[in-house]
Specification:
With 309 residues, the protein is of the alpha+beta class. It is built from 6 helices and 17 strands. Strand 7 and strand 8 form a beta hairpin. The protein is globular.
Length: 309
């Protein structure tokens, strides 16, 4: 009997193994490629008026250092339009600044940033596979190709690719892409973006709501990191005092006091003074000439501890 039952048991196990492989292979085949290049190619998109672009660029560079490309007028959309544009490189993050001289076409103006990808079609397909929608299909711009996508919760981003690959040095500090989202869409968005970006969840928990102007409350904060850079997701009920939720990017600086002094000297308003966060650092909110709002923070003590492990 034992010898007669062995083939049956073997066949059963073999069939189970084949089933497991057959299930795993489509999953492996469907795994999206990592299309990210590096954090220094993440550019925050800033829309200002033609009358304020010069003052804004000067104030941003005066606050954080770096340099700006010459101002020029381009068509950067797939439909007719004209915008003055400058690319701003600083040690703490990059900007693509637009001052449209014509009405802004559909699909543009609400995208928070642009991520450089290794290939525009591969980037689009990876986003679609992760659950994103495509608002504007790939199109040519003066130096490459772009596509505008949307994630759960209405989070819009642009992916871009350059005909001639850029070569920028690493940043002194990597900025945070700051996302505000409801509890209903949060997990879907985090899952989608994590799959697309091959992102790692660094932390996920309840923190002091004072970080987003809700002192005394607790809010869920999720920190992710990937080859695109850092992302911080705040999950809230949307009842946020101004200016929280109006910023897309948070910049890490080595000396908060010195940064705020330079900001004041360059016409920047402090909308919310430095606040001690649960990470052990200070966070403040700034408004630059032209209306651009950003967060700025000192180095996180928890990040220092994690780096030392």
């Amino acid at each position: 009997m034992p010898f007669r039952s062995f083939p049956s048991r073997f066949a059963t196990r073999f069939a189970a193994s084949l089933l497991a492989v057959s299930i795993a292979l489509p999953q492996l085949a469907g795994a999206a490629p990592d299309v990210a290049v590096a954090p220094q190619y993440d550019t925050t998109h800033v829309y200002v008026t033609d009358a304020t672009i010069d003052q804004f660029v000067k104030s941003f560079v005066g606050t954080f250092g770096g340099k700006a490309s010459p101002r020029a007028v381009f068509t950067v959309t797939p439909t007719p339009s004209k915008t003055a544009s400058q690319y701003v490189q600083t040690p703490v993050g990059m900007l693509s600044v637009f001052a449209f001289q014509t009405p802004i076409p559909y699909g543009f103006g609400a995208e928070r940033n642009g991520y450089l990808v290794t290939d525009i079609e591969a980037g689009k397909n990876a986003a679609l596979a992760a659950g994103a929608d495509v608002l504007v299909e790939p199109f040519d711009d003066p130096i490459g190709k772009d596509v505008v996508i949307q994630w759960a919760g209405g989070i819009n981003m642009q992916l871009y690719w350059h005909t001639k690959a850029p070569n920028y040095p690493p940043l002194q500090s990597v900025p945070e892409n700051r996302v505000y989202i409801s509890k209903y869409a949060a997990d879907t968005f985090i899952g989608q973006f994590s799959k697309f970006a091959h992102a790692k969840v660094v932390s996920d928990g309840l923190v002091d709501g004072g970080e987003i102007g809700r002192t005394g409350d607790q809010v869920r904060r999720v920190a992710l990191t990937s080859n695109f850079g850092k992302m911080t997701v705040f999950v809230s009920d949307g009842k946020l005092p101004f200016p929280f939720g109006r910023e897309n990017t948070g910049y890490e600086v080595a000396d908060m006091a010195a940064t705020l002094a330079r900001a004041a000297a360059n016409g920047v308003r402090v909308l919310s003074p430095p606040y001690r966060t649960s990470r052990g650092n200070a966070s403040a909110m700034l408004e630059f000439p032209g209306g651009y709002i950003s967060e700025v923070h000192s180095e996180s003590h928890s990040e220092i501890h994690d780096a030392a492990k």
